[in-house]
Amino acid sequence: QLQLVESGGGLVQPGGSLRLSCAATGSTLDYYAIGWFRQAPGKEREVVSCITTNGHGTDYADSVKGRFTISRDNAKNTVYLQMNSLKPEDTAVYYCNARGTRSYWGQGTQVTVSS
Question: What is the pLDDT of residue 55?
Fold first, then answer.
């Protein structure tokens, strides 16, 4: 059974950077497209970015284009989200999702952007 664990969240000042990791255990990520989602208090969960199984295809929400970069290292069974130029509106719990024949979610990691 695939399990996902996010890490790398924390408190950062506006303009700062964080790198989130989504590490998989129990199965290889090779056959899963991966998405990063976020959910702010009182708001619906929204997609932030996604990446294809081989890493050659990526997509981003308009709100994070040019600031966030998704990548994956299948050898390490891990997907990353590099977040630069963070804004207060990026504050949310960030989740990774693996989508194959089934969909799997991690438990989330809190990102707080505040001065």
Answer: 87
